[in-house]
Amino acid sequence: MAVDGNRVAIVGAGLAGLACAARLTEAGRQVALFDKARGPGGRMSTRRVETPLGEAGFDHGAQYFTARGASFRTQVEQWIKAGIVAPWSAAGADAFVGVPAMNAPVRALASGLSVAWGCQIQSLTRDGAAWSLDGPDGQIGPFETVVVAVPAEQAAVLLQGHDPAMATASAASRTDPCWTVMAAFDHRLPIDSDTLREQGALGWAARNSAKPGRTAIEAWVLQASPDWSRAHLEDSPESVCAALLEALRAAARVALPDPVTTQAHRWRYARSAQGQDQALWSPSISLGCCGDWLIGPRVECAWDSGQALAARILGEPASGRV
């Protein structure tokens, strides 16, 4: 099977995959990304919900991010100038959020790249020096290089049979789950703080409507602690909504009104473990792996990992903190 030496396929269009793609594209590589989601966001997703009061927005994945390394700080500064990122002091002096929604920076990155949304890759096939992807409508390819940029548990399935070391590393990594409840109210709740942390079943609760650029509808995101989420992973969305709203009432220590709308979302792969690698790369078969799980459980780690893998593919030194 003949293959163009510049063609790269990236499975996963979250921040790690997009960071890798952006750097490879700048270097002249032809990059195609494939993601099972309907649109950009990944764990920086935003959900818009119609309520009796109008549309409410919920950042139901990552709540904010920091920028501590040189590479990501430079990128965040560019996003701030573009008006798609702003500081959010309620989460900390060094916290930032996307504007008007958390997925804004991911959406901006994806807009300049070739991304096939709603395309779940089931497996990888290698024929000589060429790779192909097994998608919902058959094989896609050929490609010279494949990058796997999905959560560790999903990466292990794709890597198995191609690179035992990568497959073992991803299989050994464990990602905490997280139940998230989105609730909108018809008036501001009598809670002084815009954020609550580690309150019983709640690992985090935030007044999403207090973030820069959001709508005025009182919207709260309630995220269960990892232990609670793991213990209640197979509970119904209805029971999870009831439990986390009760936890919010207990944390607030005041009577709260019933919400006008609620939804629950189960993240099976929410918070990655602490890793020891920046990225994984096998030059002999042109197969790589990136993701926050290789470094640590922060948004910035996904960016660093994607950029580090791109540098290895290009034979360049990684820049910034990585």
Q: Please state the overall shape, judged from the principal axes of the Cα atoms.
A: globular
User: How many individual domains?
Assistant: 2
**CATH overall fold name of the largest domain:** FAD/NAD(P)-binding domain
- If classified by CATH, what would the architecture of the largest domain be? 3-Layer(bba) Sandwich
Q: What distance lies between the first and last C-alpha atoms, to the nearest angstrom?
A: 36 Å
Could you state the CATH homologous superfamily of the largest domain?
FAD/NAD(P)-binding domain
For the largest beta-sheet, the strand count, sense and barrel status come to: 6 strands, mixed
Contiguous runs where pLDDT drops below 50 for at least 5 residues: none
The sequence of SSEs as H and E is EHEEEHEEHEEEEEHHEEEEHHEEEH
Residue share in helices? 25-40%
Class derived from helix and strand content: alpha+beta
- Strands of the largest sheet, in order across it? 7-2-1-11-18-17
What is the name of the CATH class of the largest domain? Alpha Beta
State the helix count.
8
Percent of residues in beta strands? Answer: 25-35%
User: How would you state the average pLDDT, rounded?
Assistant: 93
Radius of gyration: 20 Å
Record field, number of beta strands:
18
